[in-house]
Amino acid sequence: MRKTLALIIAAAIAPFAAQAADGVDAIKQRGTLIVGVKADYKPFGFRDPSGAVVGIEPDLAADVAKRLGVKLELVPVVSSNRIEFLQQGKVDMLIATMSDKPERRKVVQAIDPQYYSDFVNVLLPKKAGVKDWNELKGKPLCATSGAWYNKDIARTYGPEIVAFDGSEKPLFALKQGNCVGYVYDQTFIQGRLLDAEWSTDFEMPLKGVLDAPWIMAVALGNDSLKTLLEETTKDWMKTGFIVAEEKKYGIEPTEYSKAMHEKMKSATN
């Protein structure tokens, strides 16, 4: 009886183990790569007028699908559910502005080298006249709940952090004058400033702080897809694909993107 039960359990587990170990083959057989991306984070992932999700990270996902010779399916995710979606098998991989943190590496497989790196910055009204981080001391500063850097910013520069869920609520509070600025990812702020709605009265005059690399991720055990993505990332850096994507969407290429492009390009010369 015990032997029979063991065989039943092994048979039940085997398909899942095979899928995790042979991720690339399973994706090719399915004919579709399913990728979790942001849909509210311009220019990395946002909806165009037709409702389609576009941006830098969807473009990266499309390149991976092309290399696999399969179709691409994009699944919008947010910070609070993206890892859960990956663990539950709802997506094959994540390219979703996810900062590289030790606790995240315990529950997903991170792709190295990191494909991107961003700073923390503040969206400020031009009339505020703030030119230095220390000028924020004692002032209410809008933020997104759960952002890893909120405590660091409060401790280092002394503002009173006023946190809201997501990014739309703190932006609304900023427009209403409920805080002096909005502290968030620098690239997100750059994306907002591409729109006349924000660029007319707002600016990003401070120097970015707290550099944080971003990781793509696959589920634990999906080693074949991990290997493919590692080689793909190196190729993106060698060819300057990510730098070109930044320029395509109107943001200044980061020091990280430029440095990794030069490093990988030189390594092959």
Describe the structure.
This protein is an alpha/beta fold and 269 residues long. Helix content is 43%, strand content 22%. It is built from 12 helices and 14 strands. The chain has helices spanning 2-21, 23-30, 56-68, 82-87, 102-105, 150-157, 168-175, 186-192, 196-199, 223-239, 241-248, 255-267; strands at 32-37, 40-41, 45-47, 53-54, 71-76, 93-94, 109-110, 116-125, 140-144, 160-164, 181-185, 202-203, 209-214, 217-218.
Task: Indicate the overall shape.
Answer: globular
Radius of gyration: 21 Å
Encode the helix/strand succession as letters. Answer: HHEEEEHEHEHEEEHEHEHHEEEHHH
Q: What value does the average pLDDT take?
A: 90
What is the helix content? 40-55%
Main beta sheet: strand number and arrangement? 6 strands, mixed
What share of the residues does DSSP label as strand, in percent? 15-25%
- Give the number of helices: 12
- What's the N-to-C terminus distance? 63 Å
Uncertain runs: 1-21
Which assembly state applies to the chains in this document?
single chain
Structural class: alpha/beta
Number of strands: 14
Give a brief outline of the structure:
The protein is globular, with a radius of gyration of 21 Å.
Topology readout:
Blueprint: H1 2-21, H2 23-30, E1 32-37, E2 40-41, E3 45-47, E4 53-54, H3 56-68, E5 71-76, H4 82-87, E6 93-94, H5 102-105, E7 109-110, E8 116-125, E9 140-144, H6 150-157, E10 160-164, H7 168-175, E11 181-185, H8 186-192, H9 196-199, E12 202-203, E13 209-214, E14 217-218, H10 223-239, H11 241-248, H12 255-267
Parallel strand pairs: 1-5, 1-6, 9-10, 9-11
Antiparallel strand pairs: 2-3, 3-4, 6-14, 7-14, 8-11, 8-12, 8-13
Helix pairs in contact: 10-12
